[in-house]
Amino acid sequence: MPLDEYDKIAHLLRRAGFTAHPDELDAAAARGLRATVEDLLNFERFPDVPPDPEILAALDLPQSDFDRMRSDFLNKLTRWWLHVMVTTPRPLQEKMVLFWHGLFATSVGGLEFWQQIYLQNENFRGNFDPDTGQLLRPAPRNPFPVGNFRRMLEYLSKDPAMLYWLDNQFNVKKNSEVGSNENYARELHELFSMGVEDVVAKVPNYTERDIRQASRALTGWRVLPRAVGFTFPRVFSFDSARHDFGPYEHLGKRGGTNADFIFDNIVQHRNPGQKQSAVGRFLGYRLFKFFGYDDPEPEIINALADVFDGANGEAPFNIRNMLRTIFTPGNLVSEAFYSERAFRAHVKSPTEYVVSLVRLLTFDRATGRPDGLSSSQNVMRLVQNGMVQMGQQLFAPPDVSGWREGLAWISTTSILARFNFANDILALQVAQGGIDLTRLLAQAGLQEALSQGRYSEVVDFFARLLWQAVPSAEAREALIGYLQAPIPNGNNVASLKIRGLIHLMLAAPDFQLS
Amino acid sequence: MSKTTRREFIKRSGMTVLSVGLSQQAFWHHVRAASESVLTQAAALSPVDRLLVVIQMDGGNDGLNTVIPLSGLAASLYRQYRPTLAIPEANILPVGTDAAGTLVGFHPNMGALKELYDRGHVAVIQSVGYPNPNRSHFASQDIWHTADPEGRKRTGWLGDYLDVAFPSPDNPLLAVSLAGVRLPLTLRAERVLVPAIGNVVNYQFRTQPPGDHQNKMQAFLALNREAASEHVLREQIQRIALDTYESVERLQSGIQRYKPDPAIVYNQQNPLARALQQVAQILAANLGTRILYVSIGGFDTHQSQATPHATLLARLSEAVTTFFADLVRLGLDDRVLLMTWSEFGRKVVENGNQGTDHGTVGPQFLIGTRVKGGIMGEHPSLRAEDLNPGLGDPKFSARAIDFRSTYATILEKWFLVDSREILGGAFELLDVLQV
User: Fold this and answer.
1) B203 contacts on A by Cβ (under 8 Å)
2) Which residue of A has its CA nearest to B238?
3) What's this model's pTM, rounded to 2 decimal places?
4) Which of residues 161-180 of B touch A (CB under 8 A)?
5) Please, which residues bridge with residue B374 across strands?
6) pLDDT band of A110, cuts 50, 70, 90
7) Confidence band (pLDDT; 50, 70, 90) for A401?
8) Quick check: B207 and B172 in contact, CB under 8 A?
9) Distance of residue B198 Cα from the nearest chain A Cα, in angstroms
10) Is residue B429 part of a domain?
């Protein structure tokens, strides 16, 4: 059975955003699917969430003071970004920042200056200028998060955290074969742009020599150790004395004096006999996997690659155009996106799990916005530990290839971690930063149903809110049974049972999927 | 276990008496393998009784300061290359002579382990590595985890073993990792789910208020048993959720059976000792767990390494010997084999910061009563021509031992399975076990 318009909008807002409250769904349904897609895509129409003053202040601390509080800084940063995801009027922007964080996976584990990871996060949001080290909202020429991918490669390669993480800051001119450190050149090809093999044709995209030659072009890229006004290295600098001016032989071409040659070659690279570019296919595959479903068909990948290549006359290398193709109804790719195969068939990442949970439970119907994630110490600790246990510590991916997604998110350990996280956050009092269930119940008008024992109504309400579905008869029965079961020797207050009900629904399989 | 039996299990929510064991199929698989093996014909040890404990030494252990040359050219070159880091000869604990006649000894902080060695329960496998060594932590660890030097495999060697030996796994605790919340790649399998448990005490479903626990778990199980969906993914999540429940119940009721012995004290300041105590708890519970995995970090000693490295070796030695004593007390020493590994050794030549950089081969320890104690193989040659030019670490030479030989030995002689498919080829077996 094809999805109806309402289902499509709910699906869209779960995937391109972080799930919507029923009130938001109603509002979006009134605007229609296409208008909702355009609002998501043209997120500049809406204000961005401001930076956190405490995080900005930490950037100005002397290094030794910063290092003493750096794990605290990481907790704050994690809390802030999750809060942004919960509250932002630009959900697709944040979804894409998360996408780039997963694709260009950089971990504080490999960084000397942890502050750099925040700059990278703002870089992926389009708010950082590596040439000056400045944070600007937005930085005028920064192509992230949905602009020109060719230029993103430049901004990625100049990113201070990246220059430290993959050692390219140490890469200096060596000989006509290779630069002194090929680590970054390798990942630039293998993980960040095209992959070892053409995603569709399954032929090698490049040779070892291409990597070595590319490493030559990336020599002399550094981060100024001490730039005026900054307490840690954050300004990109090009050191011509350490740079190898070529010419290079790369992906079948010879020439160039700097990395522009490499970036141009990468985005235009096509394997023999292939209509689509290798990068277009790679990004088409990764984007559809992220938003749609695992193992997209070659036709879908190729259609997205055509958009990347500008094959239909649009500007090439543009990420926003690819996203528009995925979400706007009326083409082969979006048909797959809105298909039954895709519907409720995405395993939420821990980030999506936490953000959707907080979004739905802190939504204030009076303001039409979620309150967000509290910055109380209790919540911050709980979230940081929870994310680690669930397997996605933001800013600390397991390695440069990022997190394993899909069903890999679910293990005995993470099932337990999700269950326990939901329990713990629901057990917090409002004064500790906990969720205001009194308001939620009052705004839902559920208190009467609860006091009169009309549990079926209560269960259905929360199923609509959290699962965005009508519960099955079995699930309803199990949950009503739970509400009716007294707590042995306990204090049988309704509020405890309501917390328990929500906890169970957050731990249920339905809430693990989006 | 079929779905019905799993659900049978879960229905018995009281669960005080457990009978845990291998599925029939897996059992017969082992019996067959055992009967085909010449080695086990007279062995008292039944195939299902064999347990493995893996200790990962994370960061690249400096093997040269762990098992130290005491005679011949190696000893003098060692002192020459390690002006600040060489252990004074008088402090080294001599253990034996290797195949090439070099006397070697343990680091002074490994006295407890030396006692075990003297009782014949420790095999030192020298110069373990692989051709074309990779000096990146990630890459080299992945190679050891997967037994695939090409780095293409996404499952681990012991995960593959579990898939082969337990085609229809009925026990969610066949293997347990106590090395943090991330499952080590070694134990990642296609089918068998291995729980990664930070700490057995925390491996529980927390419910608020605690009095409501039973009610909640009952509803949780019902939500995961509900067969309404046609989505495969949803069913898979349900299956994992039920497995989680089962593993938690078994583990929590099982570990109550472990009673500490006041004479055997696990040093709570030693993280490896704490982890191995949990291993002992799980083994004592007799939950059918075959493989346990623990890890000790901090071996990436690039600067001022003498003190931290010595501390780590003391911890290793102390934790292992305490654990061994506990196994003896529990009557399990005969059934348990311990294996240590580290992703690489370190450079022979110390760096300018009183530390050492990433290198190549290093020693591995096998420990247990079923081990044939002694020194296996040769200490790496430190002669200039035997070092990688410009890199200062031993070449992977003909006298080195491929780590897959250790794996093959464990798979073939301990677990009694064909190692070739798991390891992608046949590797020489080492004469280090008496089974």
Assistant:
1) 416
2) A509
3) 0.87
4) 172
5) B123
6) confident
7) confident
8) no
9) 9
10) no
Provide the ipTM.
Answer: 0.95
How many domains does chain B divide into? 1
> Which domain does B62 fall in, by range?
3-105+123-399+409-423
Two structure tokens written together for B208: 């608020």
Residues in chain B with CB shorter than 8 Å from the CB of A497 are 212
pLDDT band at B228 (very low <50, low <70, confident <90, very high): low
Which residues of chain A from 378 to 407 reach within 8 Å of chain B, CB to CB?
Answer: 388-389, 391, 398-400, 407
Q: Which ranges in A175-230 belong to alpha helices (H)?
A: 183-190, 208-217
Residue the block writes with tokens 């958009």? A307
Within a domain: residue B404? no
The pLDDT of residue A182 is 86
Give the CATH number for residue B96: 3.40.720
Q: Is residue B428 part of a domain?
A: no
d(CA A310, CA A467): 39
Residue B118 lies in a domain: no
In this complex, is the C-beta atom of A41 within 8 Å of any C-beta atom belonging to chain B?
Answer: no
Q: Give the best residue of B223, B225, B249 to mutate against chain A (max A CB count within 10 A).
A: B223
- Cβ pair A122, A155 in contact under 8 A: no
- The confidence band for B231, taking pLDDT boundaries of 50, 70 and 90, is confident
Per CB-CB distance under 8 Å, the chain A contacts of B208 are 423-424, 426-427, 496, 499-500, 503
For residue A396, report the phi and psi dihedrals to the nearest 5 degrees: -145, 60
By three-state DSSP, how is residue A25 classified?
Answer: helix
Is the pLDDT at B220 greater than 80? The verdict is yes
The answer to whether B201 faces chain A, any CB pair under 8 Å, is no
Q: How far is B394 from chain A (nearest CA, A)?
A: 22
Q: For residue range B23-55, what is the model confidence (pLDDT) as tens digits?
A: 334 333 433 444 444 444 345 688 888 999 999
Residue B180 has pLDDT above 90, yes or no: no
The helices-and-strands tally (H runs, E runs) of chain B is: 12, 11
**Who's near A83: CB < 8 A, 6+ residues apart?**
A49, A372, A373, A375
